[in-house]
## 1
Amino acid sequence: MVTRKSRGEIAKMRRAGRIVAEILALLEEALRPGVTTAHLDALAERHIRASGAVPSFKGYLGGGKYGSGPGAFPASICVSIDDEVVHGIPGERVIREGQIVSVDAGAIVEGWHGDAARTFIVGDAPPEARQLVETTRLAMMAGIGAAVAGNRIGDIGAAVEGVARAGGYGIVRQFVGHGIGTSMHEEPQVPNFRSASKGLQLAPGICLAIEPMFTLGRAETYIKPDGWTVATRDGSLAAHFEHTIAVTEHGPEILTVA
Ligand code: MG
């Protein structure tokens, strides 16, 4: 079921979103060759808790469930490097010059979620990597631009796909955007591509995470033996951007901004 959020509920999501945006800004500063991905995770978790929020990802089992055993996501952020698309687990891995590093973060304020991701370029990277990253960001913005009342979910996917096609990039299809609210993942799904069904009509109060994932090569992915990390099958670079937005009477409002 797709729920429409009240102004008060969106205000809480805006607070969660601000914390997520602050994390990404903090990590952009911290991200340099030589730091470990576990260090980035520690900085993020400290900021979330210091802000009185709870990490959305820590202990996540999928399907809106949390736990502490095997299978639960062990960290507060996902860090996905180069050919990794999403859901990379932070650890002792060291960031190196020239990598593209996607960071996905989520925070919960009074039960309401914010979810956002950015792909950062560490130092100098080849032009094709930079272009992939910038195009993925532009596609996210195009998708957000289509998230207006009266449009349909399919209009978002069409806008994102149009940008990918113009750049000749692969669009990851196994993972898509989603509704968001009191759960990180709610209905509806928000594909990053055109589909036969135009989908739900958008109305004020609908909150969505719009998150294109593009690749330099083919779009097929696999999950690494850690059970979480999604990577491209052909080893090509991947980029990921995400914002949480609310559909309002005045157009889309990005909630994950500082
Ligand atoms: Mg998401």
## 2
Amino acid sequence: MGRVQTIDDEARRAAAAQGLDGELEPLPGEADRNYRVGDHVLKLHAPGFEPAVLGLQDAAMEHVAAAGLAVATPRLVRSAELEGGSIARVLTWLPGTPWAAAPRGPEALRSLGRAVAAVDAALAGFEHPGLERALRWDMLRAAELRGAAPQADPVLERFAGRVLPALRELPAQAIHNDANEHNVLVGDDGRVSGLIDFGDVCRGPRVCGLAVACAYAMTALDVPEREVLPLVAGYHEVAPLRPEELALLPDLVRTRLAVSVAMAALQRAEQPENEYLLISQQGVGGLLARLGTEPPELELLRLRDACGYEAVPTARAVRAYLAVAAVGPVCGPSLEAAPVIDFSGEDPPPPPEPSLGRYLEDRRVYDSAAFEAELPGERRTLHLGVDVFLPAGEPMLAPLDGTVRAVEFRPALRDWGGIVVLDHETGDGTRFHTLYGHLSKASTERLAPGDVLRRGDVVAELGDEGENGGWAPHLHLQLLTTDLGRGSDMHGVGTLAERDLWESVSPDPNLLLRLPGGVRAEPPREREGLLAARRTTISPVLSLSYAEPLKIVRGAGAHLYDEDGRAFLDLVNNVCHVGHAHSRVVAAAAEQMARLNTNTRYLHDLFVTYARRLAATLPDPLSVVFLVNSGSEANDLALRLARTHTGRRDVVVLDHAYHGNLTSLVEISPYKFDGPGGPGRPEHVGVCRLPSSAGDADDVRREAEAHRPAAFIAESLPGVAGQIVLPDGYLEAAYAHARAAGAVCIADEVQVGFGRVGRAFWGFELQGVVPDVVTLGKPIGNGHPVGAVVTTPEIARSFQTGMEYFNTFGGNPVSCAAALAVLDVIADEGLQAHALRLGGRIKAGLEELAERHACVVEARGEGLFLGLELTGPAEATAVAEAARDAGVLISTDGPGRNVLKLKPPLVIGDEDAELLLRTLDAALYEASRFSIQ
Ligand code: PMP
């Protein structure tokens, strides 16, 4: 921040002396004179500028640059003392549009939070003597500015009294401390690309740096308290904020604004002619006036919610108390059999008495001006209480002991009529409230704040339509974990976009009613809110597919449907093997679920029947079956079987293989241990190349001799390695080498088994081998989590060591019913033959595409397990994205992330195949152009 300088002779001379030629373009600066010259910034510091302070800036910039962040920061190129004592410093110039001139939507704000967090996280270990200097922008010293400006004083007073002591409790570190609208640079993609000006680096709690960024960003926002939330959430994504830091943020934002107002007043006193100071202050002063001295409670709740913490810190204690408290009825008539009426659509006819209206229902009836929310276009439609429809005059009872907090009569149309709010306390003194709305005027007049009510006492009587806001007579009963400092001026209806926040403020009133059927609706989540809630509550380690993620709500056959009913052809999901939501599988599982689901310590027909049916699909001597819950569990158990059988530990695997998400399997999966974030190959694992000929099985001999392994494990057609068809004779030779070294051969058929490859039921059959252990997962339950291990009697015998193998869910009757139905459907619908025929047709189409498109390297695969290798990952991603836009879902994989994987549900039809080939053709055409450019 500061004023724009003019170009003077000293600047010209300094630029020339520093070897900078080109136009000097003046830049804003508070204390220094700054110029852009080509790719550099020339900074001139007046004589007397402390060298230690410049040293601090330079060292801090160097420290951050060394961290190699995604956000760019400047570096010192050189510095020199000029004649007359000024200092000239040359820094790198960073491209980008200053925040002040860039569009500032939610994504830009989120990226600003991320950038500030990244820079301050990089500064965390930075130390320098200059950090101890006295800096007026140091938030910890804000109280010293009291008396400089009347507008700032109340905030600074509150800071000194209430905020500073808590701030001092937080750990301090070096922080950038000046992410204002001139120091933040935005790239062409609308996201923050750079952070400049390390002149205000100081030591302080990192939340002060965040508060600076928030304060300036908020000056340009229409509803700053709400719209700033993505900035804070973005910071939290990179540098998680603790609740005690968040608790100070609303005050610190106000403090920074007050500091700015106070500093400007001081500077104005020193330089009355400087109009720039006045202009730059308008936004800051206006925002401070809007926010007020004391943050409303809701502001903190929103910050907590945006960071994934439950909004009201005490809500959990209130719910826990109510879960076990002695609670009385709220009315005489029993509500157990009362029907629940749907109020989400148009106004229904007058409801019967008694009847109920649901909590958290998203209602269209709230359409009057009274239900507007803060953000333009946003309405309050989410019902935060439960409605109990009873005749006017019916007495309402206190379900808990309580004290009247507020009692009012608000007769306006769509308002509360008579309303009573009671205060209660949990056993450990946590305050909460109950609210009773739509009462009669006369009955509320009997009450006054401070009156004590016992459980079972009459609170008041229901009002009639003429006095209850114009509604059919009913009680609106609402629980409140906080009154938000608003007394009886409480919202009974919240915004859908903030449903988690409102659910924390007003928990399920069935904690009081205790109706076994519940009173809760499940409102839809709006897309932005869904993404934001997922970002904080679900680890991003679990990534989403596609630049624009899909919200899939239904599946049928080979298709998935999004929330708008748009169909997508699914080439990704080999889990729903016989088709999404296949009616026979659904019926079998649902019927068994309704009858019995328990563990396998009882005799049950389905467990044994399924095991027999499964074993019958495999060649001798594979005949002993273990049922588990996933492919990973199957592979983990297979390793245990092999290790117990051989008394050895090591494992030989194929390069790029993936065998599951358990520790034991990440250890034997090169895809993971050699992939991003991987720790490298563990000593007990030997890796063989992905073969290009049968002779490459020599790798297995070499690794088996070196490791004396318990097992050689391979997918019969490697999947994540890029839909590879192993060379003829490879597994035969590999198994022979492994067995010669005493190892057990495990075939991972999690992806490829169960008829997918068309020519055979099992992938290993294509190679003419019989494994010692076969592992299964994904397709065998058609989406229901089931996995299996099938092995020889001999290996199974070795596993009887005295230690029991128990798996709570593995082999439960519901899983068995689903899995049995899958086997039936594969046979009855002839799906293996279909995979052979349609797979052949698609493969021929892919081969034809390979001939026509320069960016295709190879088409390969068997049956409906196909791959299309492209020249690079960018092409593969571009094709997958274009296909998605055209309604076809395809995933990418392979060591170079350049293989399109096609493994649809086996029920994909001929027309689907045509659509797929047409879509790929068009997408490849685009991708080829893209790869030439
Ligand atoms: N083996 C292979 C070959 C796999 O592809 C997978 C999952 N992609 C697994 C095992 C693990 O299966 P799950 O995710 O069901 O545990």
## 3
Amino acid sequence: MKKNTLIAVALLFGSVVSVFGQNKVPVYLDDSKPLKERVEDALSKMTLEEKIAMCHAQSKFSSPGVPRLGIPENWMTDGPHGIRTEVLWDEWSQAGWTNDSCTAFPALTCLAATWNRDMASLYGNSIGQEARYRNKNVLLGPGVNIYRSPLNGRNFEYMGEDPFLSGQMVVPYIKGVQQNGVAACVKHFALNNQETDRNTVNVNVDDRTLYEIYLPAFKAAVQEGGALAIMGSYNKYKGQQCCHNEFLLKDILRKEWGFEGVVISDWGGVHDLNQAIHNGLDMEFGTWTNGLSWGTSNAYDNYYLAQPYLKLIKEGKVGTEELDEKVRRILRLSFLTTMNRNRPFGSFATKEHALAGRKIAEEGIVLLQNKNNILPIDLNITKKVAVIGENAIKMMTVGGGSSSLKAKYEVSPLDGLKKRIGSQAEIVYARGYVGDASGSYNGVVSGQNLAEKRSAAELQAEAISVAKSADIVIFIGGLNKSDHQDAEGADRKGLELPYDQDKLVSELVKVNKNLVFVNISGNAVAMPWVNEVPGIVQGWFLGTEAGNALAEVLVGDVNPSGKLTFTFPVKLTDNGAHALGDFPGKNNEQTYREGLFVGYRYADKQKIKPLFSFGHGLSYTTFEYGKVTADKKELTADDKITFNVEVKNTGKRDGAEVVQLYITDLKSSLPRPVKELKGFEKVALKAGETKTVSITVDKSALSFFDDKKHAWVAEPGDFEALIGASSSDIKTKVAFKLK
Ligand code: BGC
């Protein structure tokens, strides 16, 4: 609207308002200007109280706008796997709406395992549409904390152990979300790699490890993804809580990376007024509202960034400079989300979203082992299928903490299999063990009655007899979303499968050697029976379409193409954090003694053979790699180098392979990992087809973080480009130099 028209409308409206007994002409925002000016315009019209109000919550998931100026409230939602159910204003319990059942997308672990940037984009766009439809303008996700230990209860919400892979997958997710006028809030910044003592633990990590392992995905999210928001984590770093951490928020995020977005606290993560004012935090959520451990209700005025902050300003003890900065950033977010006239309207719980989730699930499922080609299930010769295990029937979208969902529906693996093959083969089910019979979170109930009166011995006996009579046994087990499994708030107690599943698997395979173990989890588990069991599938938490996607892979409608995004160690001490460290720490101190050597970097260094390696994943077809070539022998500092390799599908089925590029620095002044992932491409190949895969890198792929210089350094010298089908299956390599 032009200024003159605006004033005319304002005057007209003002006179209308005065008819109703008001005499002030309303103030209007001039929206004809560029973003920066509009922000300043709005800021200049706000009172001190209105500014303070914007910086903290008014309910569990919302913060005030400025009603007088027509600036809407901000509404947040978890994230990251679907749009959380509506909760009551000041309580965690669900509000009881009947129109908030969402699409449950696969967990981010599964998304990352697709190694397909298009899938991340599809995911982001789909969940962004759901958030938009539900009128949320901030999605609390995605999470990119690095998989440091297989015991971290929240690994399922993240994208694995590799900083490059996480960075590549998070960027399209964010762009997908944000194209809907919804801000992505990347979490949890930073070093939130365990749940034990998460509110109090102080993480000690050297700068190199921080910059090379724990920060790159956040940096990519901010700089390449353009994330509009970031969430501070609960833990401490250098003795300061991360939600108001001078080093992370001011020095790195704002100064080094130039982040202009909003820093949002994790719920209840603010502990210090002075630091909250000065160290780069913008919005405070979850403090003192009975969310975590304390119990004052409707205490939003008591938040650090509420009355206490206002009081300091009024007493002249702090100025308003920091406050204005915070409000500027929040206004910017509002202008780009709720006040963006061009944003679409969104859509919710649609068939398209269910199918998007299914596609992602199909591409993320990982075939870990397939001896004697036990999979896909051959329906020509299979008359009877025994399905065993609690996870074949248990709903996994309810539970696990803040990512818990009220899903419109969830297809269980058993139902998926019945639907797909029930008319061709007999399916017999036995639960085999009782794990977690509960199924509720904040008032959302799974509705399943999993109560079981029979003894463990009876259940086991039934499973064995069912297995004996079948042509093939599909054991669907793993972890679940209850405490000390894949769940927020606590870590796992060990690497072993819970509920005596190992014993059951070993007994079953004695009576029927055609056994496939499907591991439903977001974490690695130990598999002491790995040599006895021919088929192993990593089935993740797959959301709404879980059972359908799994069935398609098991029968071969879909040829698996997922690859692991973290290492499965044989035993806990094969993981650096456990071999060298004291995970989860003592006296609230946790030191990352393994340094850079996380995941495959540790396995490589110690020459440990993992149970399953990072990047591993089989297919129902086979691929042959040609010899990798480089387009030049020598690279100069501002140059790029491209590696080309031919990949052929040598089997009888169409399939897709993830071609991985690792770089080795042959000689360097500082110790470096044996190799590091620096590129990948997922390539679809028809049976018999050959394609050339090209991966281009620049010197950033050769660099390490020199902590003395506090800079990324690429040292001239000899390097090798390794092309592999996993981190332990290198097919071909080529040497090159950096000048
Ligand atoms: C979690 C966040 C989540 C927030 C709001 C916290 O407990 O750490 O990831 O977004 O709650 O539910």
## 4
Amino acid sequence: MKLEHVGIAVSHLGMSNELFARLLGRENYKTEKVDSEHVITSFFKSGATKIELLESNDEDSAIAKFIKKKGEGVHHLAFNVEDIHVEMKRLSDLGFELLNTEPKKGADNKLICFLHPKSTNGVLIELCQDLKN
Ligand code: CMX
């Protein structure tokens, strides 16, 4: 599976956009509100992969809870898959705990599904499949 992006939870998207633009030497290429996840996201290209900054817009969201408990930082790794239904079945059959029974519509025109960090050495994993336009 190709590493599609690294998700980073941030408290202030504007400030983190400036920080990552300085760090990577380029501006973000997209900002998107994702209602299903209660976040505003910002994407940067970085070599063959991407960095996704995530700011919560709801105090009960997964990102808000994460920051409250652990502070800002790496939140998840996302892997690109050809067929998300096939991968979900494969990983479920292998004993990984899926957090969705059906894929959800995520940021950047993708279908997504998360695996519980308790079943993946404490790392939240996202599967994502490109949606055809
Ligand atoms: N990485 C690693 N561990 C994490 C974690 C993360 N991102 N988020 C939570 N955890 C840990 C918690 O610290 C907790 O650990 P302990 O039991 O040792 O205290 C454990 O997972 C379970 O936590 P919980 O309190 O039972 O459950 P939460 O309510 O915190 O939910 C999770 C955790 C992963 C199930 C939830 O955040 C989730 O469903 N995530 C998937 C959706 C998501 O993260 N959306 C935001 C990103 C959207 C996007 O990319 O667009």
